[in-house]
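Problem 12. The chain below contains 225 residues. Write out its predicted structure in token notation.
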Amino acid sequence: MTASVPTAVALAAAPDLTFAVTGVAAERFAALPTLRFGVEIARGGGGPVSSITLTTAIRIDVARRRYDAAARRALTELFGVPERWGGSLHPLAWTRTTTQVPAFADRTTTELTVECGYDTELAVTKYLRAVRDGEVPLDFLFSGTVFFRSPEGLLRTARISWSKDASFPLPAALWHELTDRYSAGGTWLRLSRETFDRLDDHRARQVLGSPDAAVRHLLDHSGAP
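Solution.
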């Protein structure tokens, strides 16, 4: 029998969990560029864990690192001019995942997979494209439900507080190497049918070999740096 509202005794027996992100690697065999983060979960109190439905929110704490001149220019669209960054650098929400963690006694490890999409209109993608060196400061916020046995042997549940968190420095180069491997050094760009037709007409009239060459031709004649 599962109790949806634990008694005081069951609350005292609820596992006290801590979380640590231990590493990251690129997923080798995935249809989309994917990062795999290792997470260690330790039980500091309460009884053994029957299972966990673990929800993880990942965000980028953009104020926790320095930026060179090129990155500051690229990030102006997201955060405004650097002179105002003291009040405009807010964390960027990246993704939220749900993972099933099996039973364990004292500690265990699990993995979180995060897809790295191509959509350059997303704020997170714009940020990661702009930051080419150093580390990306990530915050992992954990929540969810832990299932455990009470001293009477009954299956109980308890919520995991959002106060459970961990930080991890993602090497910026790893994200760029991963996405470049899937895109062959290119970038996905979404255009309306009308805009693409106009671009393709310009390409044909100027006898240019590709849409990329057409865009370069337009930029070269626009005065843009």
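Discussion. The longest helix spans residues 193-205. Students who got a different answer should revisit the alignment rule from Section 12.3.
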